[in-house]
Specification:
4 helices; alpha/beta; 26% strand; globular; Transcription Regulator spoIIAA
Length: 112
C-alpha cells in the first residue's frame, strides 16, 4: 500500500491511499499514517484507489479518527469504491468517520 500526501488550502491535508488495505497494507503505512494524524488537524483520506479493505485497515482508520477527535481535529473518507464503502457501512465505520463522494463536501466536512 502507498500513501501520497497533498496540502490543500485552509490547512487541509489530503492523504491518497492506493493498494489493498489489509494486514500487510496497514503495516506498510502505519507509522507514516500515525505521523500524519499527529501533525495535522484536518485530513481527507482519498480511498478511490483502495480496492480491498480488511479489519486491520478499518482498525488503522478508526484509531486515526479517535486520535483526531481527541485533539479537536476532523477526518473524512473520500470517494471509496462501492466494495470498500460496503465494508465501511457494514462495519459501522461510517458512523465514526464520515464518507464524502465530492471533494467540496469532504472539504466542508473537515472545515466545519
Amino acid at each position: 500500500m502507498e500513501m501520497q500526501t497533498q496540502a490543500l488550502s485552509g490547512g487541509i491535508t489530503k492523504l491518497a491511499l492506493s493498494g489493498r488495505f489489509d494486514i500487510m497494507g496497514a503495516q506498510q503505512i502505519d507509522s507514516a499514517f500515525k505521523g500524519m494524524i499527529a501533525d495535522h488537524s484536518k485530513i481527507i483520506i482519498d480511498m478511490e484507489k483502495v480496492p480491498f479493505l480488511a479489519s486491520m485497515g478499518i482498525r488503522t482508520l478508526i484509531m486515526g479518527a479517535k486520535t483526531m477527535k481527541s485533539k479537536g481535529g476532523k477526518m473524512v473518507l473520500f470517494n471509496p469504491t462501492s466494495d470498500v464503502e460496503a465494508v465501511l457501512t457494514d462495519s459501522g465505520t461510517d458512523t465514526i468517520i464520515p464518507i464524502a463522494h465530492d471533494l467540496n463536501a469532504a472539504i466542508a466536512a473537515v472545515s466545519g
